[in-house]
Amino acid sequence: MTALVIENLNKVYTDAYSGEEVTAIGDVSFTVERGEFVSVLGPSGCGKTTVLNTVAGFVEPTGGVVEVDGSPVSAPGPDRGVVFQSHALFPWKTVLGNAVFGLRMKGVPRAERERRGREYLELVGLGGFERKYPHELSGGMQQRLGVARVLANEPAVMLMDEPFASIDAQTRRRLQEDLTRIFEERRPTVFFVTHDIDEAVFLSDRVVVLSGRPSTVQEIVTVDLPRPRTWREAVDLPEFRDKVARINDLLSGGAGTGGGARVDSDSPVDVV
Ligand SMILES: Nc1ncnc2c1ncn2[C@@H]1O[C@H](COP(=O)(O)OP(=O)(O)OP(=O)(O)O)[C@@H](O)[C@H]1O
Ligand SMILES: [Mg+2]
């Protein structure tokens, strides 16, 4: 069953002052199956966030179709949960209060929401922190809480826009492994935006590689790494290295111009 359909998506912004038009998304099509982890990679400014925001219902497309579980997206809704790059937590609510916020909005009874809140906090490694406040958590823990809050809602699609970008490298690796474990246990449907090729390959079932503006899909790379995945094992597998190299090639402009001929160009595309 297909959870997310994006078909011929196009977005043109018009500058409010100059009237100048900016094509944020050229023509983008791909799907995400239920229980699949799909990442989107592409040069800075190619419209990754705009694609995610149209799926979230924050941005109205200029053209094309976005469907979640067979219904067209017209506004934000609880069937799509967003984990933001910065934590977007409520500072006046406890960790548990933050985790169950969406359930409260949906009218889930108190005992049930507490049970689910605790379960998902446990899952992301925040068991025991229920009564703390966000400012008492580290950046990595706040990001875990962002993940728990979305998971607790059990959305049809989980949307993540560079959720680990502002986190130190070591913590980021741990969060990536945690996210993989959670994905393997629960099989949510995930649409993940990143700049980080290794991260995309490590986490994903498929990676959608976008071109620079006006963006189109250059290639959809399937990753057949076995699960469960850990960094220690993944980095040594030829499949991991091959897929990283392939995507690197695509993003460096090597694709279609003689394989990796331009990978070592001295003006690499800004992808990291
Ligand atoms: N609200 C807006 N109004 C006008 N232009 C916008 C708006 N939002 C985005 N853009 C433009 O659309 C293009 C795509 O932006 P977007 O943020 O989607 O790219 P991105 O791929 O997420 O970039 P990054 O990798 O840097 O996060 C950019 O040129 C950006 O300046
Ligand atoms: Mg972005």
From TrEMBL:
InterPro entries: AAA+_ATPase, ABC_transporter-like_ATP-bd, ABC_transporter-like_CS, ABC_transporter_ATP-bind, P-loop_NTPase
Key words of the record: ATP-binding, Nucleotide-binding, Transport
Pfam families, sorted: ABC_tran
Domain ABC transporter: residue ranges: 4-237
Keyword Nucleotide-binding applies: yes
Alphabetized CDD domains for the sequence: ABC_NrtD_SsuB_transporters
SMART domains: AAA (SM00382)
One of the record's GO molecular function terms: ATP binding
Protein name per UniProt: ABC transporter ATP-binding protein
